[in-house]
Amino acid sequence: MKTHPIFGLILKDFYSIRGYLIRQIGLLLVIYLIIGVAMKTMSMLPAMLMLGVTMSLISIFSLDESSRWNAYALTLPITPRDLVISKYLIYYGGMYAVGLLASLFSAAVDTVLFHNGEDAVENLILGVGGGLAILIIYSLVISVDIPLYLKLGIEKSRIPTTLTFLVPFVAIFPTVSYWGPWLANMDWSSVNWPVVILIALAALAVIVLVSCRVSIRIMEQKEY
Hints:
The chain is mostly helical. The chain has one domain (5-169, 189-221). The protein has 8 helices and no strands. The longest helix is centred in the first third of the chain and has 35 residues, at 5-39. The protein is globular. The mean pLDDT is 85.
């Protein structure tokens, strides 16, 4: 049975950083479990684990760059499109897997430890909802960062990619006085959540697909 090159590329990237990724997630999990117990809330856990995963996955670009993997891979039956798509799949796949699991875990721990099991369904929905909101922000950030990694390289893109992570969160604080009261007074029960979620996911999918197409174009134009 013939295996598609993209699957092999994903396995290559995963095994390259598996040990480091597990240690990074484990360390952040222990640290933010302790902080969460002390603060009596696990709300920081999903965001910090997702940040740890996204930072860890940068290593796959660094390893490819230092070993000149892409130049070698293109001498094989592998196309620039295969190389780019595999990166998007492992990056977004890893981020969403960890993000959703962390959101479920933090909501469950919050419910059991700090709410005595009360309103379990509501706490679960809020926890997963908060995690999805953070995932959307990170997804938009990564859609900018991957083309930068491929165009500039890891070293040259460190400052611009750091800014892409900081800007969305820093922008919240100066503007919260405008949209905070509006959110606080909103009748959340009247919101058509399936439609809102569908529109948000569709818009996000379009942005990621455009980002992927830009990255493929960058890879096709690179000279090795």
